Structures are given as structure tokens and as C-alpha cells.
């Protein structure tokens, strides 16, 4: 039996090798054959999900809410001490110095990462900006968002904090952070389809064991998860879902 392991398409390009290293380690330690799927965009992810073949999913919090509530996916783990914070930044030569300097009609670059947009809208509240007040400029990557901000093609850009930190030092030197979230309760989640009930124990044990064997440091460094993975209970998932609902209100 082959299990399809789908990864949300919002990790930095340099983490690609890390996911393949993880997939290899999980197969070896669980005895389960995993087929890694790394869609390039949210649209591609939706197409894979529509086939019903995604057995394991590393999902962003926004997608996780729907998958748990309507599709019956079971949360079982998440990256330890790794929360989904986001950054709003502008070009260093921009006249925008604070969030309050953003005005209705401003252009903001963003990817298809919906939880980043959700948190970003909350961070824009001091500027009295609602979603309809903004000209959204959609891009395929955080690198593209950075380029548009640096060139002055947008007044600001939304970034997943980890993605912003992974930009090159040169790129970051041409950007100015306006604000960074500090929610600490929202994270990507590892989910299992209910049909995996018989195999989940072995898979969960393999995930939670990453970091406990010599040589795992290189794997975790490649992933950007220095503390490995930790258990995520249904209760913890429900708390996160409630928080997401609050942000949506």
C-alpha cells in the first residue's frame, strides 16, 4: 500500500530537499511506503485534494480548519515551537514608515496563502483598512512579493514570517518590516485521512521520533524545524479552529 503525503505549497524553495529527506526517513522508520506530493500552488493542491487521494497532509491552518471539520481528517502532530506568524513589509525606499501610513487604494502583494492574508488584515486594523479598501496584487511566491515591494510596484507585501526570514540578506536589506504578528497559537498541522486508522500509529511514532537519532540534526535543519515535531491533540486543533473563527469575524 502506498500512502500519498501532500505538502502545502508555502514552504521556501530551499526547504524542498528537506521534505524529501523527511519522506525517506519516515518510510524507513515506519515501514510504510509514502509518495511525496509537493504542489507548486494552492490551485494545484486543490486539484490533488479533489481526487480524494491525499492520505497525509501537511496543511496550513486555514485549510486545516476545512479538512478537519468537513472532510474528517484527524490532526496528530505539528512542528514543535513553530508558529505561523506573518510579516508586513515595504520597500526600504518607500515613504511608508508605519502601517498607519497605508491608505485606501494602496497596493499589497500577497501569495495564495489565505491564513497569512487573514492575519494580515487584522494587523492592518490600525490603518482602518478593510479588504475592500486594498488593491490586491497576487504573486506566485514570496520572492516575487519582495521584488514588487522593492521596486515600488506595491506599497506593502504580506509574508509568512519564516519565508521572510529565509529571503537573502541582500533582499531583506532592501525591505522594511512594518509589523510582525505574535499570536503563538496558529501553526501548520499534520493531518491523516480516516482511512489511515490502521497505519497512523506507526506514522505518528515515526514523525515524533524525528530528532532522536544521530544525524537527524541535518534533516531538521533542512526542514527549518530545529525542534522536530510534537503531538497535536484534537482539543488543541479545536482551540486553533476557534481562534481562526475569531480572526474571520
**Classification by helices and strands:** alpha/beta
Tell me, briefly, the overall form: globular
The major β-sheet equals: 6 strands, mixed
Strand content: 15-25%
The neighbouring-strand order within the major sheet is: 2-1-3-10-4-11
- Over all CA atoms, what is the radius of gyration? 19 Å
- The total count of helices amounts to 10
Uncertain regions spanning at least 5 consecutive residues: none
CATH superfamily of the largest domain: Periplasmic binding protein-like II
Under CATH, the topology of the largest domain can be stated as: D-Maltodextrin-Binding Protein, domain 2
Specify the oligomeric state. single chain
Listing every helix as H and every strand as E from the N terminus to the C terminus, the arrangement reads: EHEHEHEEEHEHEHHEEHHEH
Number of domains: 2
The pLDDT mean sits at 93
Number of strands: 11
Spell out the key features of this protein.
249 residues; alpha/beta; D-Maltodextrin-Binding Protein, domain 2; 5-stranded mixed β-sheet; globular; Phosphate ABC transporter substrate-binding protein
Task: Describe, in plain words, how this protein is organized in 3D.
The protein is an alpha/beta fold and 249 residues long. It has two domains: 2-83 and 185-248, D-Maltodextrin-Binding Protein, domain 2; 86-180, Periplasmic binding protein-like II (D-Maltodextrin-Binding Protein, domain 2, 3-Layer(aba) Sandwich), CATH 3.40.190.10. 40% of the residues lie in helices and 21% in strands. The protein has helices at residues 16-30, 42-50, 61-71, 114-123, 142-151, 161-166, 169-173, 200-209, 216-223, 234-248; strands spanning 2-7, 33-37, 56-59, 74-79, 86-91, 107-110, 135-138, 156-160, 175-180, 189-192, 229-231. The strands form two sheets. It has a six-stranded mixed sheet. A five-stranded mixed sheet has the order 7-6-8-5-9, with helices on both faces. β6, α4 and β7 (135-138) form a beta-alpha-beta unit. α1 packs across α8 (200-209), α1 (16-30) packs across α9 and α3 (61-71) crosses α10. The longest helix has 15 residues, at 16-30. The mean pLDDT is 93.
